[in-house]
Amino acid sequence: MNILLAGQPNVGKTSIFNKLVLNKKNIVHKESGTTRDWHYNQVNNVNGINLYDTPGIVLKNKKLNLIKFNKLFNKIDLIFYVIDFKNYDNLSDKEAIDELRKLNKKIVLLLNKNDNMKNINNFNFYGFNEFFSLSCSHNLGFDKILNFIQQYENDDINQLNYNYSISIFGKPNAGKSTILNKLLGYNRAVTSNIPGTTTDIVEEISLYKNYSYKIIDTAGIYKKNKINSNSINFFAVKKTIEYIKNVNLVILIIDSTEGFDTQVKKIFNILLKDASNLFIIFNKFDLIKDKKKFKKEMDLNIHNNFSSSKFFSIYYLSSKNNNNIKKLKNLINSKLKKIKFDISTNKLNLWLSKSTNDFKHPLIKRKEVKFKYAVQVSANPIIIKLFCNFAKEIKENYKNYLLNSFHSYFDLKDINIKIIISKNKNPYI
Predict the structure, then answer these.
(1) Which of 280, 302, 336 marks a domain boundary?
(2) What is the pLDDT tens value at each position of the chain, 429 positions in all?
(3) 357: domain CATH number?
(4) Which of 6, 72, 325, 345 has a Cα-to-Cα distance from 28 of 20 to 30 A?
(5) What is the four-CA torsion angle of 255, 260, 263, 265, rounded to 10 degrees?
(6) CATH assignment of the domain containing 42
(7) DSSP secondary-structure letter at 286?
(8) Radius of gyration of the chain (CA)
(9) For the chain, what is the domain count?
């Protein structure tokens, strides 16, 4: 069962969405038009019901422009039309509802912003005898809406299951939303030449080679000094960064025409710190004239700035080329099958013994540094804990050596390894 929230801009659709769904908080902002794409999630504590949040309906020549939402409306079973109670006789609402009725979907009216919950039992709005009055700001009326939704509960349906999650990051206008649309095979996210078109997170489930993927398009990450702390983009970037730790694979999209500039370096540094699995795509590669020279320069630039970057793949493509997209799908598919990497303690300690014997750490306080053993404490991300007698005094370049050795020994690519060094628990060793 799929329910759609529709209505004019700034009537509270996203606030209602956030109240009703499970673990989902779309951006709510006083600026009209905050929601620019449609979003969905499961209704809290009701099985088999998905709720969709949409941009405000704007009529053109008294007609709804449904081209962008054709894929969405085809799967919708019920429409909640939201009206601002303080402006319930709006002619635009009547015209929008008349257009929505042509879709032959059941429509239920939600009168939001009725903060005092005025008694309106005799209210009749354009033929609606059934409606719900509510107030998001005072959290009133939602019990009745949930009771209404529960009649459609279905224990056998769970449409939001997926095997892996992928998140797309980058600067504004790098082509993130275009790549999302290409991966899905239809125009799911709004694209534009104007930077900052994507403000809220756009998520969609896609099936490829018998695996289901949740693909997440994030807002472009601006420079800090270019964001007003009260703007939509400020909240969008803040929310974007929260997604880095919570997905299986992160893809950094870079606009080839702008290259690996200062802002991209900052984004890459954030991703290196928190992402479990990562690779880089230079998009719009078709716009580069001397492709061979460009590749060489970018590879050197990235590897010179980030020593660990040599373990992460760099790809060059144009999202306009469908052959590139097919290769990208296969690439994602192959990488995600390898993300959970469990290493036996025996193999870990064979690596540790070889690495520390091949290149020993300098003496500390005239004593030998002894690495006793290693254990894997996490699989996603991979975190390896090493125990030795001078844990806090191990040199940084030796830590980098161990990290490089680990990648090479186990032949790992695009996986963000973290090595923690701890003091041996036995004080007599």
Answers:
(1) 336
(2) 889 888 888 888 888 898 898 665 544 434 444 445 677 888 888 888 888 888 767 666 666 655 456 667 778 889 999 988 887 777 788 888 888 888 888 899 998 888 776 666 555 666 776 788 888 888 888 999 999 999 988 765 555 578 888 888 888 888 888 888 888 887 776 654 544 444 467 888 888 888 888 888 887 665 554 433 444 444 455 666 766 778 889 999 999 999 999 888 988 888 888 888 889 999 999 999 999 999 999 999 998 888 778 888 899 998 888 878 888 888 888 888 777 677 889 999 999 999 999 999 999 999 999 999 999 988 767 889 999 999 999 999 999 899 999 988 998 888 888 899 998 664 434
(3) 3.30.300.20
(4) 72
(5) 130
(6) 3.40.50.300
(7) G
(8) 26
(9) 3
Three-state secondary-structure class, residue 413: coil
Residue 119, classified by CB atoms within 10 Å of its CB into exposed (0-12), middle (13-18) or buried (19+), is exposed
Report strand pairing: 314-316 vs 278-283: parallel
In this structure, what is the dihedral angle of CA atoms 215, 4, 172, 227, given to the nearest 10 degrees? -130
Euclidean distance between CA atoms 225 and 266, whole angstroms: 13
Residues sharing a CB contact under 8 Å with residue 312, sequence separation 6 or more, in sequence order: 278, 279, 280, 413, 414
Residue type, 411: D
Strand order, beta sheet including 382-388: 371-379, 382-388, 418-423
Q: Per the domain annotation, does 185 fall within a domain?
A: yes
Please choose, from the candidates 364, 360, 341, 354, the residue with its C-alpha nearest in 3D space to the C-alpha of residue 417: 341
φ/ψ region of 189 (left if φ > 0, alpha if ψ in -120 to 50, else beta) reads beta
Angstrom CA distances, 349 to 352, 368, 382, 415, stand at: 5, 18, 16, 20
> What helix, strand, coil percent values describe the chain, rounded to 5?
35, 25, 40
